[in-house]
Amino acid sequence: MLQNLMSWPWTLISQKVFRDALKVESALLEKAKKYREALNKIQLYYQYVNRIQNEQKVNALIRQQAEYEFSKERLLFELERKSRALTQRLTYFGLIFSVIIVLLTLWFYFDKKKSNQLLSDANKHISQLNENLELKIAARTKELVKKIYNLKSMQIPILIKLDNLLRS
Hints:
By secondary structure, the protein is mainly alpha-helical. 93% of the residues lie in helices and 0% in strands.
């Protein structure tokens, strides 16, 4: 029966069953006083156990290597994601800063334009006041000159009379 079990393809029996079957077969052969065959079976058992342990260790190493590679890739991905997020934030900051600069420039432009318009209006008003003042001064000067002329013309006859009085 064990011979039939041993001849089964590897795909049909599990590794644990095969390993246990080797140990049981070795024990049966030892009881049957077939020590050489029992020794061969127990050696085969230990070789198989060692092979399984080695495969498990190799698989564990491969799994650790894969986990390490995965964690390294995950860290690189996370760093790249953070770098992109930082770049995106800096881009947004630069864009907002640029918009603020443009808005400030426009505000200063329109404020300067408004101030220039107010200055121009004030200059026109001052110019008009100056013209009005010059006209008033000219009119007043003319009026004063006329009064002075009138006073002089009135003064001459008085001076003549006074001169006559003093001579007499």
